[in-house]
Amino acid sequence: MRKAVYPGSFDPVTFGHLDVIARSAALVDELVVGVLVNNVKTPLFSVEERVNILLEVTKDIPNVRVESFSGLSVDFAKQRGAKFIVRGLRAITDFDYELQMSQTNRILNPEIDTIFLTTSLEYAYLSSTTVKEVASYGGDISEFVPGIVVDKIYNKIWEKHEK
Q1: What does the pLDDT look like over 72-124, one tens digit per residue?
Q2: 41: annotated active-site residue
Q3: 142 labeled binding residue
Q4: Catalytic site includes residue 59
Q5: Do 74 and 57 contact (CB within 8 A), yes or no?
Q6: What reaction does this catalyse (predicted)?
Q7: Which of 2, 28, 83, 85 has the fewest Cβ atoms nearer than 10 Å?
Q8: d(C-alpha 88, C-alpha 75), whole Å
């Protein structure tokens, strides 16, 4: 069985992420989307919220599982029995960082390879950071994220502004 993990923060999940999820799920028997618990960043959504959002937006892709994890992606892949880590690339700047990470992961575990998928052209500009920034100024984010995520983002930003 060909199994891969696609790790990330997904804060929030964007159409770019969903593009990589759908395309990588077509390449493997099982894709585990790993939602990173990152203590260094302050996410907009809790890890539980991000997992639940991803479960909802990937429910029509039968070979996708969504789980949270902490620690190294390569360790998470090994724990799940995956032979591949999937990473999306938007630009050459992503490649530089992701190449270093994949080489480090190969040293940590030579049995796990990294698969790079270039983001489809219509999403090459898109990042979760951009979505949050546009939303924080009241801009329209409906072209960036699934409909069920739009209101969740505005509501979460509104909650944070009220505090």
Answers
A1: 999 999 999 999 999 999 988 889 999 999 999 999 999 999 999 999 999 99
A2: yes
A3: no
A4: no
A5: no
A6: (R)-4'-phosphopantetheine + ATP + H(+) = 3'-dephospho-CoA + diphosphate
A7: 2
A8: 19
Yes or no: say if 15 and 144 are a contact pair by the CB < 8 Å rule. yes
Rg (CA), the chain: 16
Catalytic residue among 24, 50, 102, 128: 128
Specify the pLDDT at position 17: 97
Q: Identify the active-site residue in 3, 78, 80, 90.
A: 90
Q: Is 88 annotated as belonging to a binding site?
A: yes
Is 136 part of the annotated catalytic residue set? no
Q: Which two tokens stand for residue 66?
A: 């969504």
No. of H helices and E strands in the chain? 6, 5
Query: Is 65 a known ligand-binding residue?
Result: no
> Which residues, in sequence order, are bridge partners of residue 117?
88
161 catalytic? Reply is: no
